[in-house]
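Example record used in the benchmark description.
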Amino acid sequence: MIGFLHGKLVSKQPPELVINVGGVGYELFAPMSTFYELPDIGEAVSVYTHLAVSENAHTLYGFAGLKERLMFRSLIKVSGVGPKLAMTILSGISPAEFAEAIAERDIDRLVRLPGIGKKTAERLLVEMKDTLAKLNFGPSGTVTSSSLDASDEAFSALQALGYKETEIRRLLKGVKADGLSTEELIRQTLKSSTR
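Model output (structure tokens):
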């Protein structure tokens, strides 16, 4: 799993950027909010990452901060929201503003985001409500839910092992995540999948 990169910024053409880390060029996709914080080409840069594994590709996504990455990971768990749509959402609204729209059930604000229709907005309101209630995405707030972090990391690890998103959701629902570390959560999930 690649969780963080620090190196020299080689190129940045939205939505792609390339970072040279020890002579290896990592190509990443990033939301516009991250692009606004990137330094000039040739300068040092640090980004948090998420590796998405599919049948056709291993795609690396980059984020300026942990809140963006956590929001991305929460969004891709929503039925019908893939990495591309999650990137579009993060390019159009900050995690704090998104959390506010969900808390206020502001469907009109969500529908104004590119790629979000009424049905998707309604699904986001329903499926993100509980997730965001556990987190603090305020302007100066910090992410504080260790059990949700463990769940996110377990989700990513199971994807890297080749499990499909729908299967991972089903497996994770069958395990009580409260207080479990990422390793324990993965272990319990894998045990339940072999029964």
